[in-house]
Amino acid sequence: MLRVTIQDDARGAAFKLEGKLAHEWVVEAERAWNDFSSFPHGERVVVDLCGVSFVDDAGRALLARMHAFGAKLVGTGPMTSALIEEICGDSRPRVRRWMRGLVGLFFMFMVSAVPRKEGVLDFVRGIENGHFAYGIPNWIFTLLNQVVHIWKGIA
Known about the structure:
Elements: E1 2-9, E2 12-21, H1 24-37, E3 45-55, H2 57-69, E4 72-74, H3 78-88, H4 94-112, H5 117-129, H6 138-154
Parallel strand pairs: 2-3, 3-4
Antiparallel strand pairs: 1-2
């Protein structure tokens, strides 16, 4: 069984699917999609897959055509997320993945450079007493010196 709900307003249009997108229901969903896509909509068209419990190969092909039309596929759950990633994966900007990796590397470096308990206590005491230059804790300078030392060793 499949339920198709269409919502169209000033913010954009939503094509919501609930149930199983398989077998004869793919034909019905495609018929509804063709009717839906024949009318002009706002800038955004979203295909909501949050209520979909199963998708067969024909349903996947229909979702790929919807994505090719310009619709954004959204959903929750591991199966739906994996399906959306499979369909939309190549069209997503790789810069975001690269940037996410760089930010993750930066945070991993910062976590590995977290000071010991004494360093944190020195930081707190320094803020209370106003002893740090511009509020910069001493462990930052220690970390900077270690990075410089490593850099000189590489160069």
